[in-house]
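User: I'm putting together a teaching handout on how sequence relates to shape, and I'd like one worked example. Could you take Ribokinase from Mesorhizobium helmanticense, show the sequence you're using, and then write out its predicted structure as tokens right after it?

Assistant: Happy to. First the sequence, then the structure tokens directly below it.
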Amino acid sequence: MSGRLVHIGSAVVDYVYRIDALPKPGTEKTASSFARVAGGGFNMMVAASRTGMKVVFGGQLGTGPNGDFLRDALAAEGITTLTQASTIMDSGNCVAMISGDAERTFVSWPGAESVLSLDMMAPVRVAPDDWVFASGYTLSYPGSRDALADWIEALPANIAFVFDPTPVIADIPRAVLDRVLARTTWLSCNRTEAVEIAGPGDVEAIAARLLSSHCPKAEGIIVRAGAKGCFVRLADGGTQTIPGFEVTAIDTNGAGDTHIGAFVSALSRGLRAFEAARYANAAAALSVTRLGGSSAPTDAEIKTFLGHIAGPSTGADGRTGRPMPDCLNT
């Protein structure tokens, strides 16, 4: 199997500040570094593209400095934008504060990416073997959720649809969320998001309920679990915990996006789900050793990493590092 990744999501500009720790209320911190980078759905698209998948963007960009910045970033990665730019607003932005423990805190401001209509999406046409991806961020916006849910439901039955509910899952109306889950082919989420959908329990029970009660058309469920890697349950009943990799993390921003992009890319090339999940774990592990949310490795780098490790808990240099933080829990 092959085909494109058609990303129906939101790309934003990230303003990234590195600080030793978050400031207390009413106080101020001076950042040790600052960067303006493409973020949001851009990170997932980059991960899929760098691992060999052709990617096109079906969300909306704005008109203004943020939209121009994102257009240039997408073009530099060989990613084509299918829709017309908004003529009335710029793309949104996100302030990301990366603390000394490599964790991150976000404050977002939505822009053109938060408004979608079926007319805007008319240029987005899928072909046989394409993979479609959407995230909870786009479904959380009142100006895009209904049109996007309608568009997803109208996808041909033979098109694989991948969904990541994201940390804003509580902002998605349950009726809209249920419609999207019912059409999902592969669901990738962290444990918190899985519990929000299916209720508490151990990961095997939660994944089973996700398949039986919420994603009846899904081929599988991936529950990302930080240092433990991820848990995969398939519709045929097969289950496996795929261990993570110990690395020295310096920036966890975008690791979850990298995991999903690499997983979909691997599946599109014909890898089996468990093998694709291990490949995605390696991609995410490499990404957190680099600065920036769009720090996804290439296919060659992932294969080199996997070829040099002695086991699932050994670092890329052959020595045991400190455990990978919950970077896949995003």
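A couple of points you could highlight for students: Confidence is low (pLDDT under 50) at residues 310-330. The longest strand covers residues 11-18.
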